[in-house]
Amino acid sequence: MQSNNKIHCLIIDDEPLAREILKQHIAGVEVLELTGTCSNAVEAISFLKEHQVDLLFLDIQMPQLLGTNFIRTLKNAPKVIFTTAFRKYAVEGFELDAVDYILKPISFERFLKAVNKVLQINFNTEHVLPVTKETHTEAVNSFLYFRAERKMVKIFFRDILFIEALKDYIKIVTDSKTIITKYVLSTLEEMLPSSEFLRIHKSYIIAINKIESYNADSIQIARHELPIGRLYKFEVSRVLHVSSAT
Predict the structure, then answer these.
(1) Is the pLDDT of residue 56 over 60?
(2) Rounded distance, CA 212 to CA 223, Å?
(3) Contact 53, 8 (CB under 8 A)
(4) Where does a domain end: 109, 131, 153?
(5) Of 72, 96, 131, at which residue does a domain stop?
(6) Cα(98)–Cα(89) distance, rounded to whole angstroms?
(7) What is the C-alpha separation between 123 and 99, in angstroms, rounded?
(8) Can you state the angle between helices 16-27 and 108-122, rounded to 10 degrees?
(9) Cα distance between residue 33 and residue 134, in whole Å
């Protein structure tokens, strides 16, 4: 770690959306500094020759060269957090002395847990990063890209009113637009900060600060009346009671 006390990070992943999520997570943690991003391991080899990197966020399943094989080519490898959609690489990842192994999609809470391990193991510090209101604010001010109508559409978390599941698709309703994209609602739920978004039904996630009114059976957001599912009523009541008391 260099003299400015920042952990210099490099993201290596062939998926643009995965790189974007990690960039947002890194931006939400003060001690981390993004040095660069690479779309494959071959590109990363050249990058590492020219830049100081303390920590790699490394995908495993990539074209040309697997992330695990890439690490084997490095004589003095930085600390590594593997990021992958495949559980089958877990054992191999830890055999390569990875600090952590995160399955995609990567929630902010899981990301912080991995970063805490880096702080404790590699940088001789007891500092721990809690999931604080300030940290989540960074996440809410961030965005994701979703594929809709043959293009990638940017959606800021702060603009979301609610998200509705439509079988294999989801509908994202914001202050100014609505998009429909192929996605799994539970997967997106993991990416949203739990202090700002709430699952109220098997088919609905809502932005807590956009609620206009509610009762035991439904929540009103803008002109939309959304049902509260029977299995979600206790948690919804608990969260909204806490929110109204603060």
Answers:
(1) yes
(2) 10
(3) yes
(4) 131
(5) 131
(6) 12
(7) 12
(8) 60
(9) 17
Handedness of CA 149, 153, 159, 164 (dihedral sign): positive
Residues 107, 27, 80, 191, Cα dihedral to 10°: 10
* Helix or strand holding residue 16 (H, E): helix 16-27
Segment 47-70 shows an average pLDDT of: 89
**pTM of the full predicted structure?**
0.53
Report CA dihedral (42, 46, 49, 52) to the nearest 10 degrees: -80
Provide the pLDDT for residue 88. Answer: 67
Same domain assignment for residues 18 and 118: yes
What order of strands is seen across the sheet that includes strand 160-166? 178-182, 169-174, 160-166, 204-207, 197-201
Judged by average pLDDT, the poorest of 43-57, 121-135, 156-170 is 121-135
- Joined together, the tokens standing for residue 21 give 């999520």
pLDDT band (50, 70, 90) for residue 28? confident
**pLDDT classification of 133: cutoffs 50, 70, 90:** very low
- Plot region of 6 (φ>0 → left; ψ -120 to 50 → alpha; else → beta): beta
- Please state the domain count of the chain: 2
User: What pLDDT band is residue 134 in, cutting at 50, 70 and 90?
Assistant: very low
Strands 178-182 and 197-201: unpaired
CA distance 117 to 99: 7
Question: Cβ(30)–Cβ(4) under 8 Å?
Answer: no
Residues 26 and 107 in one domain: yes
CB 213 within 8 A of CB 224: no
The encoded tokens of residue 103 equal 């399955």
Helices (H), 100-210: 108-122, 133-140, 185-191
Distance of CA 186 to the CA centre of its chain: 13
Domain that holds residue 237: 144-245
